[in-house]
Amino acid sequence: MIVRVLKDLYKKSGDFALRDEFGNMMLKCAFVGKGYYIYNKRGIQIAQLAFGKNEASMAVAQNVPSYPGAVRIVKLGRDNFEFETNVIEKGDDQYTKNVVGRAVAKFSVWGPVSKYSYDIFDGSEKVGEVIPYPADDGVFQIRTYSETNILYVFMITLALEWLNAAN
After folding, report:
1. CB of 75 within 8 A of CB of 69?
2. Structure letter (DSSP) for residue 96
3. In the structure, what pLDDT confidence band is assigned to residue 59 with cuts at 50, 70 and 90?
4. φ, ψ dihedrals at 28, nearest 5°
């Protein structure tokens, strides 16, 4: 599946609807200054992307508590990022010690993020590609695969764009 996204979405006001190639809305996101709230078609919040100094944290709502609950992206330099999982803040271990674990995502990106031309991996599996859109310089495309979690890939692209622009 290929979806198109406006570049510099964080500079726009209002909501943005992510649509599939047939124009069907998949999800909505709203930039709220320090991050994004992401909603499903019915308007229920399903994820949150929060920005800090040189970092972004992605959290997806789930009906069963799981650990790790969030993925942190740290900017090491232009087009250079590290994905951290299993990071427990001081004092939070009391809340996570009894939560059933799940497979930890091991995200990474390869390619020039600032040129909107990179691959997104979960471990050794490619889960998405960000590619330029030749018909409009103000748009980029995200290509995903049948087993891809589009929500995570979309949040990663939003986070990387904001982090690269922040400094």
Report:
1. no
2. H
3. confident
4. -125, 150
